[in-house]
Amino acid sequence: MTNNNQQATYLYNTVPTSEKTIQGLYLKKERLIVPIIFIPGVMGSNLKAKQKDSNNKIKRVWRLDNEVSVIGWSLPYYGDAKARKLELDPEETEVDDGGTVVDAAAEEVARIKNNYHLKIQLLGDDKSQRNKKRRLNQEKQQEIQKAINNNPENRLFGSRQKRGWGTVGYISYGEFLELLQKILFEPDGHLSTILNDLIKPPSFSLDEGSKSSLELDEKQIKHCEKFYFPVYAMGYNWLESNEDSAKRLKRLVEVTIPAFYKKRGQICDKVILITHSMGGLVARYYTEALNGRNKVYGVINGVQPATGAVAAYTRMKRGTEVNGDNSISNFVTANVLGKDAAEMTAVCAQAPGPLQLLPTPEYGMGWLTITDPNGNPESYPKADPYAEIYLAKDKWWCACEPHLINPFNTDHNSQQMQDDWDKYENIVKYKVKKFNESIANKYHPNTYAFFGLEEDANNIKTESLTYQIAHWQGSVMVSKKKASANHIGDKNRLNLKELVEIRTLQNGDINEKYTLLPADGNGDGTVSQQSGEIPIDYLKARMCLPVGHEPAYKNKISREFTLRAIVDIMYKVKIND
After folding, report:
1. Which pLDDT score is estimated for 6?
2. Can you state the angle between helices 130-150 and 106-122, rounded to 10 degrees?
3. Secondary structure of 104-154 in the HEC alphabet?
4. Tally of CB atoms within 10 A around 361
5. CA distance 493 to 507
6. What are the start-end ranges of the E strands in 468-509?
7. Which positions ≥6 away from 229 have C-beta within 8 Å?
C-alpha cells in the first residue's frame, strides 16, 4: 500500500496496445489528490424521471447534450404549462448521469475505430468474410476497452463518466471540463504549458480591495507538481431545494470520493469547488451551513446570484426574455426555458431551487417599482420581499399568480387554487426563506469570484442588459371590461390570460394598463451587478468582465482567472497538512 503523502516514490508503467507494441512510457509520481468539483447552475444538470416509461426505458426530462436535445420544450403541447407541471416536478425527477461525455481515451479510441474500419472495408462484401468481420469487430471492442482502461487519466482517477461528467450539460460545460482536466493533468508528470505560462502577468485587472493579486511566480506554479487534480462534476436536481443539493455535495466530498481513493491506498480529504451561477448557492450552503468549510481548500464562483436575481421575478411574470438579437437560436432558448408566465409559474411554484433565486433581503429594498398613470412611483419591498412580493397573493404584482400555479385547474376552482397556493406558500416560508437566511453574508474564507459587467455603463450591449430593478409603468386605457372575480388573486384584474409584459386593472371607474419595462441595468443578462458583485471583504479576489451568464466559462479570461485561483489556493497548502 502506498502512502499518498510520499513524493519520492516512482512507478514506471508501460501501456501496451498489443503484445508487440508499446504505446508509451510515463512516470507516475505519488502526489496528494485534490479533486476539483464543478457545480453547474440552474438548468445546467441533466434530469430524468424517477419512474421508467411504459416500455421500461429511462425517460429523459432535461438533457443538455446539444442544441437539439431540449428543443422539444419550445414546441406547442410538448412544452406547454401542463407538460412542464408534470415533467419538471422535483418529486418525480432525479439526476441523469447519461449525458454526453468525451472519454479521456477518445483520441486513441478514434484511431482504433478508424484502423478496424479500414481492415473491415478491405474484406469487401463477400459473404465468406462474415466470420472474419465478426472477429474483427470483437477485437475492435476489446482494443477500445483496453485503451480506455489503460489511459493514464482513467487509471489514476477513474473514468470521467464515474466522476460525474455525464450529470451536467455538455453543451454548456463539456468543453470547459475537458480543457480544465487537460491543463491540470499531464500523463508524463510535468506541468502543462498553459499552467507554466501563468508566470506571465494576468491578462485582466482585479477589483480594488482584492487580497490576492493572482500574479504567480515559478515557485507557486511549481508547487502544483505536488498534487493531482482529478476534475469532477456534480449535477444536481435543480428543481429541488439547494439545501438538498448541498447534502448531495457533502456525500460526494466526504464519503464517495474519499472511499474511492482509500481503496487505492491514497488519502483524499479536501477539495476545491468551482461553481457556476446557482451552483454557488449550493457550495455556500455546504461550506457554511453543513460544516463543510474544513473539507474545502477554496471556492471559485462564476456569475453567482449572491443575493438573488430580479430576472427570477420578471420571468415568473412575463417568461424568459430574449437576450441579444432576435435570432432563431435566441428565440428557441427563451421558449425552452419558458416563454410566458404560465409556463414559468407552473414549474417554479413547485420548485424550491428556482424560487431560491428570487432577490433576498440582502439584495436591498425597492427593486420593484410601480408607477401609476399619474406618474407617481411606489417601490417594493419596503422591508420584507417575502410578505410584500412573493406571498402578496392579493396584489397583481405578486411573483406567483395563483391562477397559474395549476394549469389543470382550467375552471379556476377556488378551493383547488387555495390548496395550490398553500403548497407554494409553504415552499417559500420553509424552504426558500430559511435557505436564504442560512447563507446570508456567509462565504468560505478562500473564495474567489468573477461576475459579468460591461465596462461602459452608458453603452451596454443588448445581450448584457440586466434587470437590476423591475419597473411596471402605468397608463390609462379605454376598455369596457369588468374585473375578473373567479380567482383568489387581485380582484381588480381585467384579463387573467395576460401572460407576458402587460397587466390590466380596474381601479374604481378607471381601467389601467401596466407594462413591465425592458431591462436596462448592467450585468451578464441574468445577474445584475448589484448581486454579482459580492462584497470584496468576503473574497480573496474579484474580477468583472463583459461575459454572458450561460457562457461564463466559455470565456478565455474567466478560465485564466479560474486557473490562477487554483494555483493561488494550492500554494497555501503544505504537502504534510
Report:
1. 32
2. 170
3. CCHHHHHHHHHHHHHHHHHCCCCHHHHHHHHHHHHHHHHHHHHHHHHCHHH
4. 17
5. 9
6. 470-477, 502-507
7. 34, 35, 36, 181, 184, 185, 272, 566
pLDDT in the model for residue 325: 52
Shortest CA distance to 355 belongs to which of 309, 397, 401? 309
| Helix, coil or strand: residue 424 | helix
Going by the DSSP 8-state scheme, the letter that residue 243 receives in this structure is H
| 245 in Cβ contact with 292 (< 8 Å) | no
Residues with Cβ within 8 Å of residue 326, at least 6 apart in sequence: none
CA angle 242, 248, 253 (to 5 degrees): 125
- Short-list 116, 107, 95, 101, CA closest to 47: 95
d(CA 405, CA 411): 13
Helix H or strand E encompassing 47: strand 47-49
- How would you classify the pairing of strands 10-16 and 22-29? antiparallel
470 C-beta neighbours (distance < 10 Å), count = 23
pLDDT value of position 330:
58
The pLDDT of residue 332 is 56
Q: How far is CA 313 from CA 304, 373, 382, 393, 448, in A?
A: 17, 23, 16, 14, 27
Residue matched to cell numbers 433576498? 360
Q: Residue 9: its pLDDT value, please?
A: 32
Largest separation between any pair of C-alpha atoms in the chain: 93
Contact 278, 357 (CB under 8 A): yes
C-alpha cell at 196: 507554466
Q: Mean pLDDT of residues grouped by 10 in the chain (577 residues)?
A: 33 40 50 97 96 86 89 80 95 97 93 84 76 84 92 96 98 97 92 96 98 98 96 98 99 98 94 99 99 98 99 97 59 76 97 98 99 98 99 98 97 96 99 99 99 96 96 91 86 95 92 97 98 99 97 98 99 80
Q: Give the integer Cα–Cα distance in Å for 385 and 514.
A: 20
